[in-house]
Amino acid sequence: MTPLTLGPHQVDPPVVLAPMAGITNVAFRQLCREQGGGLYVCEMITTRALVERNPKTLKMIAFAGDERPRSLQLYGVDPDVTAAAVRMVVEEDLADHVDLNFGCPVPKVTRKGGGAALPWRRRLFARLVRAAVDAADGAVPVTVKMRKGIDDDHLTYVEAGLAAQDAGVAAVALHARTAAQRYSGTADWDAIATLKQALDVPTLGNGDIWEAEDALRMIAHTGADGVVVGRGCLGRPWLFADLEAAFAGRPEARKLPTLGEVAAVLRRHTELLMTQFGTERDACVDIRKHIAWYLKGFPVGAELRRALAMVDTLAELDDLLGKLDADAPFPLETLGQPRGRTNSPGKVHLPDGWLASRDTDTVPEGAEMADSGG
């Protein structure tokens, strides 16, 4: 398969790590990059927080010295603020690629008209994307990531994809679920195929890629130019090694690490977090959320799991990891199974009157968020 081209950047294999709040920080991205090639996107950054130089946000846009291209996802609702944020990225050389978030389904985002809600207001959506592309002025490629629509009765993905293409984006990524689905059910790969057929720019597919063979099946089913991987890599950064091998057509078997090998990756993850945060305790607090994902399906007792999920120091972590059965084989029953966030479909919270008009391009009052991270 040919490499994915985003402006001047070649992404080979054509694999993108989806931005995930609280997960895809510089440490996790480096851990994944050590496994295989691709494009690794930082956590979602809000345009207002960036423009206002929110200290937390400025820390979140840190990149490793050897991280290229540096990929930044922006969330905004106001075209003017978004343009100012993109100009800041370009003028201060903060990133090499900007992705615009139109996929977030969480209520605090959609009730302000942002994320997955915004493409319904097609004129506002087109104005915002064009403002971002114009502000980038060719210096960095701009892409968009979106969902199918608000719900099955309010689908927007083809129209939004065409509008984004007309605005000059370098690629469009589709998480093939509606906002109402959240992270439930099955991704609609047929929708990715439909979008691919409608667009001339590269089209990326996102949704239900749990194993490397899922990525190959998605490409074969949809004709997509690349894949976006989110929850499938939680507790399994070596998935990117599997993906690199699969896209290269290499015959070696997928990585199925023993529990001891998983423990070594977990320890490496913690070391990288310590470099990022600067303190042992902050690194240990952050690694706690990953413990259950790393240990999923392995024979680890409840007491040991609880202790690992409350770890405070590296010495404590090393002691607890030493109690694991290092020779325990990888649990095959977990392959192909959902990881991370799963939930039920739910009502999408929208601003009052949001669905009444598709052609209003007024920015909802109070839409811009002052904090980053989703």
From TrEMBL:
Cofactor(s) annotated in UniProt: FMN
Keywords noted in UniProt: Flavoprotein, FMN, NADP, Oxidoreductase, RNA-binding, tRNA processing, tRNA-binding
Pfam families to which the protein is assigned, alphabetical: Dus (PF01207)
Residue span(s) of domain DUS-like FMN-binding: 17-319
EC number: 1.3.1.-
Domain of life: Bacteria
Enzyme class: oxidoreductase
Cross-referenced InterPro entries: Aldolase_TIM (IPR013785), DUS-like_FMN-bd (IPR035587), DUS_fam (IPR001269), DusB-like (IPR004652), tRNA-dHydroUridine_Synthase_C (IPR024036), tRNA_hU_synthase_CS (IPR018517)
Keyword DNA damage recorded: no
Catalytic activity field: a 5,6-dihydrouridine in tRNA + NAD(+) = a uridine in tRNA + NADH + H(+); a 5,6-dihydrouridine in tRNA + NADP(+) = a uridine in tRNA + NADPH + H(+)
Role, per record: Catalyzes the synthesis of 5,6-dihydrouridine (D), a modified base found in the D-loop of most tRNAs, via the reduction of the C5-C6 double bond in target uridines.
Family statement drawn from the similarity comment of this UniProt entry: Belongs to the dus family.
Name of the protein: tRNA-dihydrouridine synthase
Organism, scientific name: Asanoa iriomotensis
Classification of source organism: Bacteria, Bacillati, Actinomycetota, Actinomycetes, Micromonosporales
